[in-house]
Amino acid sequence: MAHIIVVGNEKGGAGKSTVSMHLATALARMGHKVSALDLDLRQKTFGRYAHNRAKFLEKSGLNLPGPRYRELPEIDQSRLKPGENVYDRRLSAAVAELEPSSDFIIIDCPGSHTRLSQVAHSLADTLVTPLNDSFVDFDLLAHVDSDGKKILGPSVYSEMVWNARQLRAQAGLKPIDWIVVRNRLGAQQMVNKEKMGKALENLARRIGFRIAPGFNERVIFRELFPRGLTLLDLKDIGVKGLNISNVAARQELRDLVRSLNLPGVEVNF
Q1: What proportion of the chain, given as a percentage, has pLDDT over 70?
Q2: Which end of the chain is more exposed for a tag (fewer CB within 10 A), N or C?
Q3: Residue 16 Cα distances to 11, 73, 182, 214, angstroms
Q4: What is the per-residue DSSP string for 157-188?
């Protein structure tokens, strides 16, 4: 059985697709067979990232490791069982196709609540939730008081994860390993970082997730997207003497992969 990694939250702009592509490429470079799905059927940011990568590699004559991207298959609705949801069937068909030939399947979810995202969360062996270092984003996980210190209760996304955990428990599956990734950190605003850190640690104990380091805010990520590249591809396309920022970003990726503690994965890049 492939290990399913779902990258999701219910807010756009947190870096889900960047995390998905870098994680997928890192695993592929370590010799694992990686497949990927994009459940944002409207924007398809990860799908466009993968498409950009395929075009750049073809044009450049390069063959770099990366994920095998698949679109969700179309389903003849006349063949659905009574009461069966077409999106459930499309996702289950895609996973069933990819599982036999994959060590990992990475599913990138939209930044909104959809049926596909809800079902994907129930399939997750590992759930990665990138979160901007802001109480605006934190509000998706829990409501806090005006000082940002006291947690008043779980919010919409946490409740969806709780429901997914219940469904897995009922099916006799392993619990979801949920990791909240502090992403797009800025160099300043140390007071806010400290408040966010304490709030996340408090919430992690209450609702059961782990906290992992993510990526700092860097221009390089915006520059890589049009070519579908990742930090790990720079040397292969002829970039020599990586600057300090890029070296630091590669270390952030190593730290993230280690933090996920994925089965059979030894970080060697």
Answers
A1: 96
A2: N
A3: 10, 22, 12, 11
A4: HHHHHHHHHHHHHHTTPPPPEEEEEEESB-SS
Q: Where are the domains of the chain?
A: 3-260
User: Up-side HSE of residue 265: CA atoms within 13 Å toward CB?
Assistant: 25
State the Cα–Cα distance between residues 224 and 222, nearest whole angstrom. Answer: 6
Is the distance from CB of 155 to CB of 139 less than 8 angstroms? yes
Is the CB of residue 34 less than 8 Å from the CB of residue 106? yes
With a CB cutoff of 8 Å and minimum separation 6, the contacts of 145 are: 152
pLDDT at 222 over 80: yes
Class of domain 3-260: alpha beta
pTM, to two decimals: 0.94
Which phi and psi (to 5°) does residue 146 adopt?
A: -65, -20
Residue partners of 53: CB distance under 8 A and separation at least 6: 21, 66, 227, 228, 229
Place of tokens 């002829």: 238
Written in H, E and C, the secondary structure of 23-69 is HHHHHHHCCCCEEEEECCCCCCHHHHHHHHHHHHHHHHCCCCCCCEE
Q: For position 185, what pLDDT does the model report? A: 72
Three-state DSSP class for 198? helix
At position 238, the amino acid (one-letter code) is: G
pLDDT value of residue 178: 98
CA distance 28 to 41: 25
